Amino acid sequence: MGQEISLTHFSDTDFQQFHDRLAGETASLRRFAEAGGFSDTRFIAGFELEAWLLDHAGLPNPVNETYLRTLNDPLVVPELSRFNVELNAAPIEMGAGVLYAMEASLNATWGRCQQVAHGMDAVLAMIGILPTIRDSDLCLKNISAMKRYDALNAQVLQQRNGEPIHIDIQGQDHLQSRRPDVMLEAATTSFQLHLQVPFDQATGYFNASLQTCAPLLAAGVNSPVLFGHRLWQETRVPLFEQSVEVGGYQGLVEPSIRRVTFGRDYVADSLLELFQENLEQYPVLLPVLLEDDPARFPHLRLHNGAIWRWVRPLIGFDAEGHAHLRLEQRVLPSGPTVLDMVANAAFYYGLVHALARQDERAPHGLSFADARRNFYAAARHGLGAELVWQDGIRQPARECILETCLPLARQGLQAFGLSGIEIDRYLDVVAARTRSGQTGAQWQLHQLEAVNGDVPRMMNDYLENQRSGAPVHEWPVGC
To answer: Assuming Cys at both sites, which of 91, 204, 329, 406 could form a disulfide with 360, CB separation 3.0 to 4.6 Å?
Structure first.
């Protein structure tokens, strides 16, 4: 969840004092970890789902403040724009029944949230980019009423020396735009998966998570259209990267340092390397001095929350105050349905567990450069991408997923203790989607063609199919 702050304007002293505390907490974190402070050895799953509030014309409805007050659920919180909300869930320990529980939890929360939306003459939607969003919707009057977002917008622009945001995405069509703020980021909504892992195994799971990004995204793309332009199969990826494009201490000169990033390399020995990189490479965006217990690393966690790695390490604390480390897999879009998303979760949890158990130090012959190229190929082309896997052979994404990745995911889920029936329910959805080629993105493009480019009509059809609950590979195409 986005952590709220108390200030929006900062002095040079604020930045220096925050940096001093950040440096102290980074050193303290290393001592804490080396002393065995991360003692929890469980694997625990969780998720965050970003959703859209729409009116009955399928357009963004900027009413999240009233909506959240009416809903009154601490697990449903604001997002950057007034037409987005974020749904969270209680964490669940990995084991038999975890995917069933995740699906039931998300269905229950979604149903309750949708009921409140209907009571406000609105509707909730889950989709990576809303095809009907207009450029005029993405303005500062629609930024959520949280100081965190005002401050982030101001600091991103300040670190760009006032230079506007430049969007340049080439797909079937070509979109170019210059923006005076970061609000285009509000057009990107995701389904973020969390996996708490034992600290002494976290290196292997982080590196394996980077390898999962490409097959996971190729099978899950759902963001092909923005402002009527047909762009990447997962346009969310370049749009998010460009909408908050800020570099490190050298500005944008060093291409491997960006606030939204796939990273610079695999982790070598410990995820502490990433927190050290945060300190050394990334200027502070939100220098709010916090009164929280320094033993809970408040400034380190706030700073980490403003660096959007596609796989991000997070430090948290349970109800008893025990620290844990979890990974946040951020590549998947929101939607198309609850079943599709839980199937994607099954694919991730199984595949990352299998890969990490092969060798905790991770690369297995897949270079970081190839893992990175795979990710952007999957974002651009979806199931039409070609991927290099651990044997070094370039192959179609469908072949890689069906013949290599899904069998590995099955092994990983079995190792977590899931039954064959539970595994089949979810991995079979990914397999059927992959065989058919009908991802959420591909359905949108085919349906848009079938209705002669009528974007509102296509979005209305999307919502009708979403309400049915049927996985996207079963959705009909046509008028």
So the answer is: 204
- Helices (H), ranges, 35-87: 64-71
Alpha-carbon distances, residue 139 vs 81, 179, 187 (angstroms): 9, 9, 11
CA dist 241 and 182 (Å) reads: 11
15's enclosing H/E stretch is helix 12-34
pLDDT in tens, 439-464: 999 999 999 999 999 999 999 999 99
Residue 346 lies in a domain: yes
Q: How many domains does the structure of the chain reveal? A: 1
CATH of residue 31's domain is 3.30.590.20
CA distance 277 to 282: 7
Sign of CA dihedral 170, 254, 241, 385: positive
Asked whether residue 7 is assigned to any structural domain, the reply reads no
Q: Name which of 479, 25, 54 is nearest 296 in CA terms.
A: 25
User: How many residues are given for the chain?
Assistant: 479
pTM beyond 0.85: the answer is yes
Residue 27 lies in a domain: yes
Distance CA 395, CA 260 (A): 28
Read off φ and ψ for residue 433, nearest 5 degrees. Answer: -65, -40
Domain extent for 92:
12-474
Q: Give domain status of residue 366, yes or no.
A: yes
d(CA 334, CA 341): 8
Q: Per-residue pLDDT tens for 176-215?
A: 999 999 999 999 999 999 999 999 999 999 999 999 999 9
Residue 201: exposed, middle, or buried by beta-carbon count in 10 A (0-12, 13-18, 19+)? Answer: middle
Angstrom CA distances, 213 to 306, 332, 412, stand at 21, 9, 16
Q: Which of 388, 383, 360 has the alpha carbon at shortest distance from 373?
A: 388
Q: What is the mean pLDDT of residues 122-147?
A: 93
Let me know: does 40 contact 94? Beta carbons within 8 Å.
no
Determine phi and psi for 366, rounding to 5 degrees. Answer: -90, 110
164, 179 Cβ separation under 8 angstroms: yes
Burial 370-386 (b: 16+ CB within 10 A, else e): bbbbbbbbbbbbbbbbb
CA–CA dist 150, 146 (Å, integer): 7
